[in-house]
């Protein structure tokens, strides 16, 4: 989980701190907390943009929108990693190093679970699904339906949306993570108010608590997972997994040779 990508959307950082506290406090006490701690490697980054938060603005210290700063598949001339902001480079290195199965970035200003693609080839506002569209819709629906009222949205059917259909963006973290890291990322808008009152933060946490927990727990129970290793030595070897009918692949990690491929039930 990644929060506070935009400095003026601090609700994610507060909710993620509550998530970390809850997991630590309830491990071996609550079955869901125990399932998550014992079966996943869960990384929590409460604030990707601490300078923007301190300045109460969207951009970082250089006033750059970090969610428009990633190399984009539709604009290949913008692929120079050296030109990226420090925060962007750090996330890119982190994603490639850890081989995450899935991730979610938490934002404020709306109430919806957003999934790839975030932009379209011709830049028009339209539904533009990625190869794993079914799996992403499953993940987004899992979050929305576990939420206090996200699935009841009158603006977004079922409380979920394809990014390009909502409003196209380019240079976003969500699409980059999926393309270059094999990491299935959702963009979660978890509060209609970007900067809510402090007294409202615990309410927002409670409204999103089961969504976050169920999303992580669902990854334990769905998809295909295993290891790729040499039969004679038992050492991990490079390899990838592809599913017939889905034009994307997942690489096994270089350290342990393990992989986890998200596949929607059915």
UniProtKB/TrEMBL annotation:
GO terms for molecular function: metallocarboxypeptidase activity; zinc ion binding. The active site is at 189 (proton donor/acceptor). One of its GO terms (biological process) is peptide metabolic process. Pfam families: Peptidase_M14. GO terms for cellular component: extracellular space. SUPFAM superfamilies: Zn-dependent exopeptidases. Keywords: Metal-binding, Zinc. Its cofactor is Zn(2+). Residues 1-219 form the Peptidase M14 domain. InterPro entries: CARBOXYPEPT_ZN_2 (IPR057247), Peptidase_M14 (IPR000834), Peptidase_M14_domain (IPR050753). PROSITE patterns: CARBOXYPEPT_ZN_2, PEPTIDASE_M14. Belongs to the peptidase M14 family. This is Peptidase M14 domain-containing protein. It comes from Aegilops tauschii subsp. strangulata (Goatgrass).
């Amino acid at each position: 989980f990644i929060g506070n990508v935009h400095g003026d959307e601090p609700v994610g950082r507060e909710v993620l701190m509550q998530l970390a506290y809850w997991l630590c406090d309830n491990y071996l006490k609550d079955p869901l907390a125990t399932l998550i701690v014992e079966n996943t490697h869960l990384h929590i980054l409460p604030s990707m943009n601490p300078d923007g938060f301190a300045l109460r603005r969207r951009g970082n210290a250089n006033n750059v929108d970090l969610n428009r700063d990633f190399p984009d598949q539709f604009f290949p001339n913008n692929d120079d990693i050296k030109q990226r902001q420090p925060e962007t480079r750090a996330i890119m290195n982190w994603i490639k190093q850890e081989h995450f199965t899935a991730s979610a970035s938490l934002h404020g200003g709306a109430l919806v679970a957003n999934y790839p693609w975030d932009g379209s080839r011709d830049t028009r506002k339209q539904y533009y699904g990625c190869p794993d569209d079914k799996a992403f819709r499953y993940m987004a629906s899992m979050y929305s339906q576990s939420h206090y009222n996200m699935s009841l949205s009158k603006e977004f059917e079922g409380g979920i949306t394809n990014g390009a259909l909502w409003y196209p963006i380019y240079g976003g973290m969500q699409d980059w993570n999926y393309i270059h890291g094999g990491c299935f990322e959702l963009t979660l808008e978890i509060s209609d108010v970007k900067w809510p009152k402090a007294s409202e933060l615990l309410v927002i946490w409670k409204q999103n608590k089961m969504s976050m927990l169920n999303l992580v727990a669902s990854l334990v129970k769905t998809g295909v997972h295993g290891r790729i290793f040499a039969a004679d030595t038992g050492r991990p070897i490079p390899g990838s997994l592809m599913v017939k009918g889905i034009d994307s692949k997942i690489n096994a990690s270089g350290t342990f040779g393990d992989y986890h491929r998200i596949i929607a039930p059915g």
